Amino acid sequence: MAPALHIYLFIQLIVLPKGLSQLVRTQQVVTATLGEDAVLTCELMTPKDVWAVTWQKVTTETNENVATYSKRGSNVNPPFQGKVEFEDEGLQNCSIVIRGVSRGDESCYKCLFNTFPEGPISGRTCLHVNELYGPSLLITQTNNSHTTLSCSATGRPVPIVTWDDMMIEHSTMVNVTHLNGTVTVTITFTLAAFSLPDKDTRVGCVVSLFSGGVTKNVSMVIPARTQSSFPGEKWFSTCLQ
User: Fold this and answer.
1) Same domain, residue pair 141 and 202
2) Does residue 7 fall inside a structural domain?
3) Residue among 52, 60, 50, 55 at smallest CA distance from 40
4) For residue 151, what are the domain limits?
5) Of 3, 26, 157, 226, whose CB count within 10 A is highest?
6) Is the pLDDT of residue 17 over 70?
7) Pairing state of beta strands 29-33 and 119-143?
8) How many CB atoms lie within 10 A of CB 145?
9) Number of domains in the chain
């Protein structure tokens, strides 16, 4: 009987946290672009006697208390004041908003419903912060016979860079990874001068992130081949937002 009892207790210790975690509804992952606001929601699915709800930021060393809501009201700890606010205040449903997210905000966050007599029941949400810079579009007349189109963007995760013209094919692509974790993607297309139309032509470049949520574009006009130009002449445009 003793070995069986030990096995039962071991299984109970494993299953109990899982059951408690299922009592809390929250997002597993929240993705926000650098500078945007991020809302983290947390809801207790079964009514409990909750005396306080605490949000914590999970770090490598310990969990840092961010904010607490109780029957006495809400409180945001000093390091997070002006950065974190309560979106929904309640002992059964408690959400926070992180203003103007930065890389330093990228982490997992726990919401703890402190109940009696069960103790704390927690949920967990991980915040991912995306970055996207650009795109920049460069048109260069390398010589009297060729014109080169180049579009680049930098981001984290790796940005998706494409031409806004399905007629442009066979572009080359180069990726450069930087020490800060961002990646610059550049696509280049070279066309013969004789293939240029005899009127001004607008070309565009579109960038996005695989995770979605943000898309940027930029466009420029390629001068008609009948217009006079000089070898090495360049036209440059970039997206400032």
Assistant:
1) yes
2) no
3) 55
4) 132-238
5) 26
6) no
7) parallel
8) 10
9) 2
